[in-house]
Specification:
The protein is α/β, with parallel strands linked by helices. It has four helices and six strands; from the N terminus they run E-E-E-H-E-H-E-H-E-H. It is globular. Helix 3 packs across helix 4. Helix content is 38%, strand content 25%. A hairpin with a 6-residue loop joins strand 1 and strand 2. The protein has one domain.
Length: 130
């Protein structure tokens, strides 16, 4: 699973993993559409990896982030805890929805690098315990 982050201040798109395949970044309104986009792209370009945009609002508890995400029909959104986000990213990988994700914080104060590092750490722990 490849993981990218968007820095809310600069808008830069940075990879936190070390993939070598070329990538195509996509946005979708839900995971089913994302999976279909991946299948379509990979049918024409089997050498690329498809990276799904995820708008994220993360806090220690769900109540803090419940209203953080405005309705957006074009991007999958997640509001909740880091554990929940880690589970979503793992599910995206397991279900072949995408080859990676881009975490796009909705709050400028959310440190995207720290969030990405924590998600990667928790994914590694999940793999060790599986």
């Amino acid at each position: 699973m490849r993981l990218f982050v968007v820095n809310p201040d600069s808008g830069s798109w940075d990879e936190m993993t070390s993939g070598v395949q070329p990538v195509v970044r996509v946005a979708a309104s839900d995971l089913q559409r994302a999976r279909r986009q991946r299948a379509s792209i990979r049918a024409d370009h089997p050498d690329v990896e498809v990276i799904l945009d995820l708008e994220v609002a993360v806090a220690p508890d769900f109540r803090t982030v419940a209203d953080a995400l405005a309705a957006d029909d074009d991007t999958v959104r997640y509001a909740g805890t880091v554990d929940g986000l880690t589970g979503l990213v793992a599910d995206i990988e397991r279900a072949d929805v995408a080859d990676g994700v881009t975490l796009i914080p909705v709050w400028p104060s959310q440190e995207s690098d720290a969030l990405g590092s924590e998600v990667l750490r928790r994914l590694a722990l999940r793999r060790l315990s599986a």
